[in-house]
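Hi C.,

You asked whether I'd gotten around to modeling the 268-residue construct. I have! Everything is below, sequence then structure, no commentary in between.
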Amino acid sequence: MTVPVGLAEQTEIAAYVDFVAGAPEPLRKKLGISSRRVGDVQALVLREDPSGFFNRAGGFESVSVGTLTEVCDFFRAGGLSAGAFAIAPSLLPADWATTAAQLNLTESTRFAKLACTLDTAPASVDSDLRIARVEAEQAEQFATVMMNTFGFTTPAMIDLTASCVGRENWQQYAAWDNDELVAVGSIFVNGACADMFGGATTPAARGRGAQSALLAARLSGARDAGCRWVVAETGAEGPGEHNTSLHNMLRAGFTHLYDRVTWRWTAV
């Protein structure tokens, strides 16, 4: 059985909200973090994120103008001039173009949504790198690799990431080249479903199978945690494009569910 669309989307946004809003109170104040639930939808604000990446809403099981408007108001009240909506394409209503125009929502980046069913034990992957769970004393090293690879270099964002290591419902993994941590990846466990989160490899270590090995380790970790499914998101491929992350996941046993447009809200 394929993971239900609503559960897949809710697991993704639950991971983002817990990752950010689960930070210690001093960091939440410093970074301007807040979250809100509107029905099935969860929305997240991280005001001091210059990229805007974490300012998002998702988890839709249905789409209504009232819910969308309440989330837009939440973004605005949080001091944002822009935010993002992740909505599975099958949930967009017939009058979506009118609604999007009414709320000033425009098409932005596209993501591929994938899922893996954990009916059997995931296959292991041989690697010359050492793959292991991240321990509490390695949290800063883990966070530095993850955030620097994604372009978040401020101390507060690294502290935010480090605070997640060892948190309930999270498992963090890393790949080491001798004593050097060179790649990372996490899972967030949401009941029967887990979300692949934050896979990143330092530039010098790419091409050595780190993420394939980390995918296998994380799938095993999710199965051991009692999950039935694992979901993941990565950039969708356009004509002539190749996303290595996407193909790594397909080789690991993931199935492509759909491509999803990010709908960008801009304040007017």
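If it helps when you're writing up: Residues 130-259 form a domain with the Aminopeptidase fold (CATH 3.40.630.30).

Thanks,
B.
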